[in-house]
Amino acid sequence: MVNSEVILSVYIITLVIGFPANLLALYAFSVKIHVKANPTDILLLNLTVSDLLFLLSLPLKVYEADLDMMWKLPEFLCSLTTFIFASTIYTSSLLLMAVSLVRYIALAFPITYHRLHKPVYAVVMSAVIWLISFAHCSITIITQHHPSLARETPDGQAYACYANFTEKQLDVVLPIRLEVFFVLCLVPLVICVYCYVQCILILYSRPRISRMQKQKAIGMALGTLAVFLICMLPYNISHVVGFIEGRSPEWRYYVLLLSTFNTCIDPIIFYFSSSSFHCNSKKSIFRKRTLTVSELQNQGTGSNPG
Predict the structure, then answer these.
(1) How far apart (Å, rounded) are the C-alpha atoms in residues 162 and 33?
(2) CA-CA distances (angstroms) from residue 246 to 162, 167, 169, 170?
(3) Rounded to an integer, what is the distance from CA 43 to the centroid of its chain?
(4) I need a surface site. Which of 1, 44, 48, 117 has the fewest CB within 10 A?
(5) d(CA 209, CA 205)
């Protein structure tokens, strides 16, 4: 039996901490992008929007938990809330992957980074990420409303939202969850691990970078990886377990709480991203390297880079 009081407590704590923190992050990134946009800030702004969208739907989940995990609101709100929950979780994982790629390219391939350092590329990348996430998570709506899968719910009767699936629904939901695990969790995780390990190795191979800068950058990289491993991986492992067992495990509710609390951790990552990996900061590792390459290009061409 699921302990709804634990779930309710985590939801409330997440709202109280996460909402103001992400509002502050939204304001900070909006100001920075207005002054001078760069790919990392645009991606982190999208990550903030994703977290806020998640938090805006959380009051409905609070109401659900307060009713002992029973849904008494209109059915379309159940579908909408589930869709927002799922899509924003995977949008966040894909955006964290994109940020790790940008940082790796900036350190390992500064000339390439300088050529691709245009806000439009980050905007397109963000749009593609949102579309991929929405397309995969549309299953939460299809399962409940497709004529061949939907089941009748008497008006006004409480029921478990997006749970207690029929055999037909499980035949669709479980394989798609398994595919989501590989495409939207495992692949981004592997890419993040590779990019940040390479970033750490590159940082330690450059003696001109101060020890403090290295420690801040490495701490931020390890923090991002920790978010993936602690907040996102357990929930996605439940997809694999559910596929093997042929049903949704009850402990999914608890590991989903880790993904929920991630919205409180993201603003901390944003802070360190701005202070240690920010591409336009005067003390940025990336800026030092990129400017050096730009100067070499100026010497060879006699013109300023675009």
Answers:
(1) 38
(2) 16, 9, 11, 7
(3) 10
(4) 1
(5) 9
- 212-220 — which CB contacts under 8 Å span 24+ positions? 213/276, 213/283, 213/285, 216/272, 216/275, 216/276, 217/276, 217/277, 217/285, 219/272, 219/276, 220/269, 220/272, 220/273, 220/276, 220/277
Question: For 25-79, what is each residue's pLDDT tens digit?
Answer: 899 888 888 888 888 889 999 999 999 999 999 999 999 999 999 999 888 899 9
Q: Cα–Cα distance between 275 and 281 in angstroms, integer?
A: 8
Secondary structure (DSSP) of 27-46: HHHHHHHHH---HHHHHHHH
Cα(298)–Cα(305) distance, integer angstroms:
7
How far CA 26 is from CA of 73, 94, 120, in Å, comes to 30, 19, 19
| C-alpha 114 chain-centroid distance | 26
Query: Tens digits of per-residue pLDDT, 88-136?
Result: 999 999 999 999 999 899 889 989 888 888 889 999 999 999 999 999 9
| Sign (positive or negative) of CA dihedral 63, 174, 97, 212 | positive
DSSP per-residue string spanning 67-133:
TTS-B-S-HHHHHHHHHHHHHHHHHHHHHHHHHHHHHHHHHH-HHHHHHH--HHHHHHHHHHHHHHH
Strand intervals (E) in the chain: none
State pLDDT tens for residues 138-159: 999 998 888 778 776 656 677 8
What the block records as the tokens of 174 is 């479980």
CA distance 100 to 206: 19
Distance CA 306, CA 288 (A): 18
Cα 70 from Cα 4, distance rounded (Å): 10
Give the rounded distance of the alpha carbon of 241 from its chain centre: 22
> What is the C-alpha separation between 132 and 184, in angstroms, rounded?
9
